[in-house]
Design goal:
Largest sheet of chain B: none
CATH topology of chain B: Helix Hairpins
Helix content of chain B: over 70%
Radius of gyration of chain B: 17 Å
Structural class of chain B: mainly alpha
Largest interface: A-B, 87 and 72 residues
Number of strands of chain A: 0
Oligomer: heterodimer
Chain lengths: 166, 102
């Protein structure tokens, strides 16, 4: 009972944030809407017994990606042009494509019958995830470390190149 | 505890994904398009978490964590590329960036 109350509260918040992002033209305001969506999705992770994922969501998205995006907005806006306004393009085509896609998805989802039983969540879920990282998914774990290193080197290289060309 | 059916989570994730798609198609600012991509990735993570509830091995959550890391890497690289584009063309409007056309 309480779970459904909180589900509808947080999914309502997420939908409101998304609709605000769709209708606003100011890019900074859209970033605020994105923060609302990300926080509500983190709350939904807690409802789904994925506490570790919720904390990762808060740290990486609300703390990292949004800051990067706001950085991007501020670095690509000129003061004399006023607030960063984004126009719209291909609106009818986009609405038809996205609406049709959502219609197809919803129809398919509602036709499915997921008659499974939720697993009781373990108390030491984070410990369990750590164990899985270093046993079953060790190769992927090491690989993602290499990917992160390559990303850092690549990003700094790209930034360095652009400053040298001036 | 009566739990919310998984369909609700999947429908919500579908809505988030479609809205992200609409933002990517519709908005003209590059940073706005990046936000749409983040929304679509978040919808995928929500699906992983929802299905992971039926799995005692937590593979869905592990996959979602990997995907979050990749999303952060994507955002960092995209920002670096965006700064290069802005330095060269002095615009972040996709309609003005038609150098590859023709």
């Amino acid at each position: 009972m309480t779970e459904s109350v909180f589900f509808f509260l947080f999914s309502g918040m997420a939908v409101a944030g998304v609709l605000f992002m769709l209708f606003t033209r100011n890019v900074i305001h859209a970033a605020y809407g994105l923060v609302v969506v990300l926080l509500s999705v983190a709350a939904l992770y807690v409802l789904l017994n994925a506490q570790f994922l919720a904390v990762v969501q808060l740290l990486m998205y609300a703390g990292g990606v949004v800051v990067l995006l706001v950085f991007g907005i501020m670095l690509t806006t000129r003061k004399q042009h006023g607030p960063p306004i984004s126009g719209h393009r291909m609106v009818p085509l986009g609405v038809v494509a996205a609406g049709g896609f959502f219609g197809i998805l919803a129809t398919i989802i509602l036709q499915q019958d997921f008659a499974w039983v939720p697993v009781e969540s373990a108390m030491d879920q984070t410990k369990q995830i750590g164990m899985v990282f270093l046993t079953d998914h060790l190769v992927a774990f090491e690989f993602i470390a290499v990917v992160l290193l390559a990303t850092l080197v690549g990003a700094s290289l790209l930034a360095k190149k652009s400053s040298e060309n001036d | 505890m009566t739990s919310v059916p998984i369909h609700y989570y999947l429908i919500l994730a579908g809505f988030l994904f479609s809205s992200g798609l609409l933002i990517v198609l519709m908005k003209r600012n590059i940073v706005f398009v990046l936000m749409g991509i983040e929304l679509m990735l978040n919808a995928a993570h929500l699906n992983f978490a929802a299905f992971s509830r039926f799995d005692s091995k937590l593979d869905g959550q592990v996959m979602a964590v990997f995907s979050v890391v990749l999303a952060a890497a994507e955002a960092a690289i995209a920002l670096a590329i965006l700064l290069n584009i802005y330095k060269k063309h002095h615009t972040s409007d996709l309609e003005d960036l038609k150098e590859l056309k023709n």
